[in-house]
Amino acid sequence: MKQVTIERLGHQGDGIAAGPVFVPGTLPGELVEGEITGGIMDAPRILRPSEMRVSAPCRHAKSCGGCQLQHARPDFVAEWKQSVVRQALAAHGIEATFREIATSPEQTRRRAGFSAKRTKKGAQVGFHRKRSDVIVEVPECRVVDPKLSAALPLVEALAVLGASRKAELSVLVTTSLGGLDVVVKGGKDADAEMQQQLSELARRHNCARIAWGDDAVLTRRPPMQKMGRAEVSPPPGAFLQATPQGEAALLADVLEHIEGASHVVDLFAGCGTFALPIAETARVHAVEGDKAMTSALDHGWRHAQGLRHVTTEARDLFRNPLLPAELARFDAAVIDPPRAGAEAQVAQLCEAKIPRIAFVSCNPVTFARDAAALLRAGYVLDGLRVVDQFRWSTHIELVAGFKRQ
Ligand SMILES: C[S@@+](CC[C@H](N)C(=O)[O-])C[C@H]1O[C@@H](n2cnc3c(N)ncnc32)[C@H](O)[C@@H]1O
């Protein structure tokens, strides 16, 4: 047994003591005791708790691997998430002030990725235990929309129907205006009989759509998502913002950062989360790597009332970013890249000198790199906000504006 004092929280949410020793479930300042194996104290006894410690609100917190920070006060989590962004920016010599963090309420996540395994009695369904392939049942998850918790019997039925004895099924369930939108991976091939049974399950559980691997997509109703005045039916599993509240917070800041623009380019546009609401006041060119997503966006725009003109382009913005000559016609840009950031596209934006840019990011490290390039090109950073859609997890998202001086 060894005693250590936690000095800081690592990026995966573990407490870190000198050594380094990683101690999950602990907070800075805490004195803890336990066995250390391979630099990890897996089952610490807390001898001196932090003032920031609370009892985890979720009864599954100890076993489930979904949340890493349920044992910390919300103000601690908010400050920690901001400090991760602050440090990433400081590594590039950037200082920034933060707007108030926007944390999504409990039980608002619109999508859950469940794991499911067949058992002798039926199936086991839930999330993975921390650092393990054991599945933990989570009927009272505090993170996901209750409609997703209510889908657990459906996920179980899907596993009984189509999981092989050995392989694990991954079942992505998303709420939609038409009912549950489900994508199943890792199952047996869907023959005609199984498709018939899937159809019966979809009816019984009021699903809008079930996509079974790459074999079969069964659509009872279009799984519409509201994007401004438009409704969009995304391709199965396509990116969506994690919570309606997080999406609204991001969108409000994006609209503020590009206010007054008349022609906007939306880079990494997805299915139109930002492009379609922006089209209420400005023309938009939406660029996205996935053709199925640009088609969904275009279809949503064509069926909506009262929007300005929206054009779409399927294009790989890592290999083939929009060039300054192509960017010259826009007076604002929105950019929301994946975790890798947008180094190539930002280099072109720096040349293009568009007056205003709204930047949404899910990775503080690549954001800081891309922000530094924009600042070197003469932009100033304005209105940085952490938007916490992944409550109690270590995931961090942010939105910021860049203006030319
Ligand atoms: C963080 S999501 C943002 C989507 C959209 N802005 C939204 O809020 O719903 C990033 C998007 O970038 C797209 N993407 C990933 N790699 C890309 C690439 N190399 N070129 C263009 N788009 C890419 C993904 O398909 C995804 O839709």
Automatic annotation (TrEMBL):
A GO biological process held by the record: methylation
This protein's record includes keyword 4Fe-4S: yes
InterPro entries per UniProt: NA-bd_OB-fold (IPR012340), SAM-dependent_MTases_sf (IPR029063), U5_MeTrfase_fam (IPR010280)
CDD domains: AdoMet_MTases (cd02440)
Record keywords: 4Fe-4S, Iron, Iron-sulfur, Metal-binding, Methyltransferase, S-adenosyl-L-methionine, Transferase
Domain of life assignment: Bacteria
Record-annotated active site: 362 (nucleophile)
Molecular function in Gene Ontology: methyltransferase activity
Residues holding S-adenosyl-L-methionine: 241, 268, 288, 336
Family recorded in the similarity comment: Belongs to the class I-like SAM-binding methyltransferase superfamily. RNA M5U methyltransferase family.
Protein name: Class I SAM-dependent RNA methyltransferase
Protein species of origin: Salipiger mangrovisoli
